[in-house]
């Protein structure tokens, strides 16, 4: 009986000492920017890489497309020249940097259809790509 009392007292003292702090403060380490084109970004990532940030594809012209939205070297070179960044192709495996490049061009074009078409390139294939992305968008937006 005495052992039970000592154990109970020990547990009560432990719980009294180990309590949560009284203050309630929320810290946000880094807020992610929200873009009006996030819905396009999500679908393009699905179409381009099945949402795989480590995706790699060798294009017909011999240059790779990498990362979640399949950034090509020529686009990255253009982005670096316009923004002063010095990203390498290996940086495009980081979804945050990859998204940054995508959003830069999306905001330049500022037209959902143009964003989708230009992401795929130009010409007849870009219209097929537009239809494909639009079909997915229609099925995902309530």
Query: In one word, what is the shape?
Result: elongated
- Main beta-sheet strand count, sense and barrel state: 3 strands, antiparallel
What's the pLDDT, averaged over the residues? 86
The helix tally amounts to 6
Q: Low-confidence parts, pLDDT < 50 over ≥5 residues? A: none
Domain module tally: 1
Count of beta strands = 3
CATH architecture: Orthogonal Bundle
Q: What would the CATH topology be?
A: Lysozyme
Strand content: 5-15%
Radius of gyration: 25 Å
Strand order of the largest sheet: 1-2-3
The termini sit apart by: 64 Å
SSE blueprint and pairings:
Layout: H1 2-17, H2 38-49, E1 56-58, E2 64-66, E3 71-72, H3 73-83, H4 95-109, H5 112-120, H6 124-140
Antiparallel strand pairs: 1-2, 2-3
Which short descriptors sum up this protein?
single chain, 142 residues, mainly alpha, Lysozyme, three-stranded antiparallel β-sheet, 6 helices, 3 strands
Short synopsis of the structure:
The chain is 56% helix and 6% strand. The protein is mainly alpha-helical. A hairpin with a 4-residue loop joins strand 2 and strand 3.
